[in-house]
Amino acid sequence: MIRTALFASAAIAALASVPASADEGMWTLDAFPAERMRADYGWAPDQAWLDKVRGGAVRLTGGCSASFVSPQGLILTNHHCIATCLADNSSEAKDYLNDGFVSSRREDELKCPGQQAEVVTAITDVTSRIKGAMGSLTGEALTKARDAEIAAIEKAGCTDLKTTRCQVVTLFGGGQYKLYTYRKYSDVRLAWAPEDRAATFGGDPDNFNFPRYSMDASFLRAYEDGKPVASPQFLKWNPRPPVKGEATFVVGNPGSTSRLWTGSQLAFEREVRLPVTLATLSELRGRVIRAMQESPTKEREGLDTLNGIENSLKVFIGRTKALNDPAFTGKLSAAEADLRAKSAGNAAIGDPWTTVDGAMSAYRSLYLPLRFTQPSSDLLGYAQTLVFAAQEREKDNSERLPGYTDSRLPLLEKQILDERPIHPWLDKLTLEWSLSKAREYLGADDPDTKLLLGKASPEGLTESLVNGTKLADPAVRKALWDGGMKAIKASEDPMIVYALRLADRQRELRKLTDAQYSGPLAIAGSQLSDARFAAYGDTLYPDATFTLRISYGKVAGWTERGNEVPYETTMGGTFDRATGNAPYDAAGGFVAAKAKIDPNATYNFVTTNDIIGGNSGSPVIDRAGTVIGAAFDGNIHSLGGNYGYDGTLNRTVVVSTDAVQEALEKIYPAPALVKELSGKK
Amino acid sequence: MIRTALFASAAIAALASVPASADEGMWTLDAFPAERMRADYGWAPDQAWLDKVRGGAVRLTGGCSASFVSPQGLILTNHHCIATCLADNSSEAKDYLNDGFVSSRREDELKCPGQQAEVVTAITDVTSRIKGAMGSLTGEALTKARDAEIAAIEKAGCTDLKTTRCQVVTLFGGGQYKLYTYRKYSDVRLAWAPEDRAATFGGDPDNFNFPRYSMDASFLRAYEDGKPVASPQFLKWNPRPPVKGEATFVVGNPGSTSRLWTGSQLAFEREVRLPVTLATLSELRGRVIRAMQESPTKEREGLDTLNGIENSLKVFIGRTKALNDPAFTGKLSAAEADLRAKSAGNAAIGDPWTTVDGAMSAYRSLYLPLRFTQPSSDLLGYAQTLVFAAQEREKDNSERLPGYTDSRLPLLEKQILDERPIHPWLDKLTLEWSLSKAREYLGADDPDTKLLLGKASPEGLTESLVNGTKLADPAVRKALWDGGMKAIKASEDPMIVYALRLADRQRELRKLTDAQYSGPLAIAGSQLSDARFAAYGDTLYPDATFTLRISYGKVAGWTERGNEVPYETTMGGTFDRATGNAPYDAAGGFVAAKAKIDPNATYNFVTTNDIIGGNSGSPVIDRAGTVIGAAFDGNIHSLGGNYGYDGTLNRTVVVSTDAVQEALEKIYPAPALVKELSGKK
C-alpha cells in the first residue's frame, strides 16, 4: 500500500531533485513538462486540462490522496486510506472493518475522526519573502526567522479558518517556497467500503507485489453544516478497462522522496536509521501479532495498527535493499559526481556538500535522543500536543514552533477533539515497547533514559500512565485545550504530568537540531537547488512534500527475470488464487456473488507512473480527463523509488473503475452511488 | 552473554586470519606465541603449564566452555550456560530457573538433557591426508572426497565411542586440518546455580555492557555409570580478587570469528544476512515477549528462549554497527589490500579473492532458500534429524552427510533421545513465525513457499503439525531412531511426514551449496592461508572454530569517551544499582544476605583477553595456573570482535571467584562445595 510510512522522519528534509528520465517525475501542476511528454507521447495536456484536474484532486489529512467524482461531494479513495475510520466506528456489536460498509441513505454515512479533505485553490510564489527574512542568518536564528515569516504569510493568506487553509511549502529543499491555499472540508464521512478481505486479499505477502487482486477502493463524502457539499469541479467516473499502452496520469500528493540526497545523507540512512528502524519496528510487529491472537476483540482492534506497521516495514525493508544494492547506489553517486563537476568553480554555489556532511555528522549524535524521547502512545500523543499547544499559544504567532502557529491550530484542534476510540491494551503495548527500546538504544545509564523512566520499568510506568489518564475522553481533552496553561499546570492527569516532564528536553533537542542540522540544511538545500537549475535547467521536479503533483506514464507490464508480467489481472483470477486460508481466503461477498461477477473484468492493472507513499487513493486519469482507477500500491521495485526511479521496473498498481463498478453493482450493491457516479439525475 | 549466537550460519566458513596485534589472538595450545607474550609481559607459560591447563579445560556441547575445579568431576561454568538445564528441570511445582539450585547431597544433582562435557586428550595434524584426498577436485566432488576422508579419520581415531570422541577440525579456512581427540562425559548434572536474577541482574539492557553486577556462575558435575567421575587434571580454585594489570589467560572454545573475510564476504553479511536477521529475529523477540505476558507459566517456560533471542540479537546489532562503521571497515579493507599486494605475482597462490567473489555471488541466490526451508521448531528439528539419520545410516560411512557419520552419531542420538520438556505453545510460536517469514522473504508464489505451505496458512499448518505429532515423547523418538527407514516410512506422525516432504529439497540445496559455495571456498581458503603464512610467517592464529584456544591479556579498564571505566565492580554496588524494578531488582538471596555480604568483594572485572561467543564459562587463569574467575560476557565494543580485535576498547567481562565464594558461603550456601573447592578432605 502506498501509504505514508509510519515513523518516517519528517525531520530529514529532501534536498533537491535530478534531471528526469522518461516517465520519471512528480511534477507540480504549475510546471508540467508538456513538451517533454509530447515528444514521447505525441500529446500532452494543456493548462485548461490541468486546471480542471486540479479542481477535482483532493488531499486527505490522514496521509492519502483522493478525488471528487460527483457534484455532491462524493470522494474516491483507497480502502486502506479509510481503514482507520472503519476501525474507529467499529465495536463488539458491529465490525465495519471486517464487514465493510454500504449505506442506502446518506444520513447513515459514518463520520471519520481526524480526517479532513482539502482542494488546492491557489499557489503563490513566496520565495523572495522567505529568503529575504532568512538573509545571511545561520543556525537556529535562521530557522526562527524563516518560521516566523512562514507563520505571517500563512496567517495573512487565510483569514477564514473555517473553510480555508494556508500552507507554505518548501520545494527543492529550500530552492523555492510556495504558499498553497486550500478549500478545506473538515467533516468527512464514509459512504462505501468493501469487506476488509476484499481490499487486503493476499495480505502482507502480496503487498507491494503484482499480480494483485485487491478491491482497495472506497468512497467518502465531504459535508458542511451537516449536509453534503457541492463539488462542481469533480472528475468524471469512467468505468472501463484500461487499454494497454494508453497514457495515464496520477494526480495526488506523494508524501516524501529523497531522490537527490547527498552521499552523507544516504550513508546516515543506510548505516543508522534503517537498521534501528528494522529492528525496533519488527519487534513491535511481533508484539502486535501475538497480542491480536489473545482474543477476537484484540484481533479486531489491532488490525488497522498491524496493517500500518507491516506496510511501513515493507517500505523500510525495500529501502534497505535499495541502499545495499551497489548498482543502484552507484547511479546515485554518479549523479552527485556529475552535479559536483558541473558546479565546480561556481562561487555562488560554494560547497553545500561539506555543509551537509557537517549537518549529518551533528544529526548522528542527535538522532537517537530525538527518536526515543518521544514515546509512541496515542494517549501520550494527546498529552504532548495539549502541553505544547498550551505553551506555544501563550507566545506571539511569530515566536511559536511551526506546528503551533495560528494557521496550523485548527487541524490540530480537530485532531485532538474528534472522538475516536482508544484501546488501552494497544496503547500500553506501544508505550511499553517504545520505552523499552529507548532504554535499549540510549543505554540504561543515559540521562534521557533516566528522564523517561526514573527508577520505573517500562512495564510499570506504562501501567500507571495508561491506567491513570483520563485523556481517552474527548471532553477531558477539550477542557485542557480550552483551559490553556492554567488548566495544564493544574492537571493531575499522569499523562499530562509526564508530558510536562519531557517537554523541556524535547525543546532542547529541537533547538539543537535547528542549530546544527535544519539551519545548515536550509542553506545547503538552497545552494544545491541553484546548482541543479544551473546544471540542468528547468527539467527538474522537486522532491515530494505531500503537496499536489501530477505524474504521466502509460499502462504497461514489465519484464521480471526474463518473464513478462502482464499489465492487468481479472476479477475471475481472484478465485483461482484463493486457497481458502488467510490471507488468501476470498471475501464472503466475492464468494456469494461469484456467479454474477464478470470474470473477465479488469481488476488491478499497472502503469509506469512515478508515485510514492501519500499517492494512495490518487485518481488515475486518462487523456480525456476521466477517472479509470485509483492508485493503491507500487510493485516491489518501486520501494527504491524513494531514492530514484527506474522506468523499466517501477510500476504503479491501480484498482480499475471497471472492477469497482462490478463491486458497486453486484458484490456490495450501492445503487444510489451507481446512479450518482453515472451522472444521471 | 558470550554464548554462541542463535541462527549464526555455520555454513559460512571463516577463511583466514590476520597478523595479531598486542593481546589479540585465540591461539591453539600447540602454537602459543610465548616469545611474543614474553616481550610484552616479561613472562610466558611453558609447555608444561599449557599441558596442565589443557587437561582441566572443558568444552560443553551446549555451546559453552568450562573447567574442572575439583578431582571429583566438579565443573565451573556460567549460569547462562546451564539456564536451559534449569528450565528443562522446572515445572509448575518448582521453578529452578527463577529460584536457583543448591543441593546438599550429590544424589540430588539435576541431569542436564543434551549436555556433554569434553576434554581434549590429543591433537594430530591430518592436513596432508585431507589435502591428498581432495587432490585437484572441485565443487561437490571436492567436498564429498574431503568429507569421506574426514569420516574415515574420525572413525579410525576413536574406537571406543562410549568415552571418546574424534573430530577433524578445519583451521585457517582450509590451510590446516587437525584431528582433535576428546575424553567425553555424556552424563552431566547440575550441582549449584544462583537465582536467575542474581545472574541476569540488569537483564538485556546491561548485557554486553560494563560495569556489571552479575553472578553468572554455576557448577556442574560429570558422571559416569551413575557416579561422579575422577578428574585428577583439575584447575585450582583461587577465591581472590584480581590485581589491576596482572596477566590473565582465558582458556576455552571461542565459537566462530570472521576476522579476515574477504570484501565480498563482508559485503554479503552487511547487505543481505544481517538485515534479514535483524528484522526477523526482532519480530520473534516481540512475539515471545508478548506471549510470555499471557500467563506465569508462559513467562517461566519462555524465559530461556527469550534470553537466547535477545542475546543473539544484541550480537547481530553489534555486528551491524561494526560493519556500518567506515573507520572499522577501512581497517579490514586495508588488511586485505596489504595481503593482496604481498601476494601479487605468487603463482602458487593465484587469485583466491575472485574465487570467493564467485562463491558469494552464488551464495546470494542460495541464501534465502537455504535459510527458510528449515523452519524453526524443536519438534520439527527432531523429525528432520530422525529422517536424515535414517536415510544416511543406510549408506556407507564414507557416503554420508558430515553430520551423520559414525563419529557424529552418538552425540546426535543423545540429543534426540534425552528427555526434555517441549512447550507446545512455544514450538507453535516459532514454527508459525518461521513459516510466515519464509513466505514473506521467498514470496507467496515461490516454489519453496509452496513446498513449505501448500495451500495452508502458517498458522493452520502449525496447528495441525504441533497438535498432531507425538515426537515430544522420547519413547516415540527412540522407536523411530531404532526403527530406521522402515519405521520412518511407516510413520503417520505429521511432523515426520512433513520432514520427509522437505528432505529432498533440503538435500538439493545442500548439493548446490557444496558445488557453488563450499567447494570453491575450500580451495580459496587454502590459498588464502598459504598467502597469509607467506606474508606474515607464523604470527598467525586461526579463526575460531569452537575448539580449544588460549588468549592472554591483563586486568584493565578502558577509556570511554574520555572517561575511565574502572576494571572492577564490587558486591556492594549491586545494592546501589538496584531500583526495585525488573531487571534491576536485586535477587531475593542478595537482599536477605545483605548484612553478611562483604560490600568490597570484587564482583565482576574486565580484562583485555580476546574472546567471542562460545568462550562463555571459560576459566580465567592467573600466572600460577589457578582460577580467579569465569568469563561470561564482552563489553559493547567486543561485538565487532567477530571481524577484528581492538585492544584499546574490547574487554572480556568476568565474574570473580571472590564473588562466587561469597555466594557459596553466604548467599546460596553450599558448604560441601566450599569444602570440595578448598581441596580439604
From TrEMBL, chains A, B:
GO annotation terms (biological process): peptide catabolic process; proteolysis
Matching SUPFAM superfamilies: Trypsin-like serine proteases
Keyword Signal: yes
Signal peptide as annotated in the record: 1-22
Enzyme kind, highest EC tier: hydrolase
Any Pfam family matching the protein: Peptidase_S46
Keyword annotations of the record: Aminopeptidase, Hydrolase, Protease, Serine protease, Signal
EC code: 3.4.14.-
An example molecular function term from Gene Ontology annotations: dipeptidyl-peptidase activity
Record's function text: Catalyzes the removal of dipeptides from the N-terminus of oligopeptides.
Family: Belongs to the peptidase S46 family.
Protein name (database record): Dipeptidyl-peptidase
Native organism: Tsuneonella dongtanensis
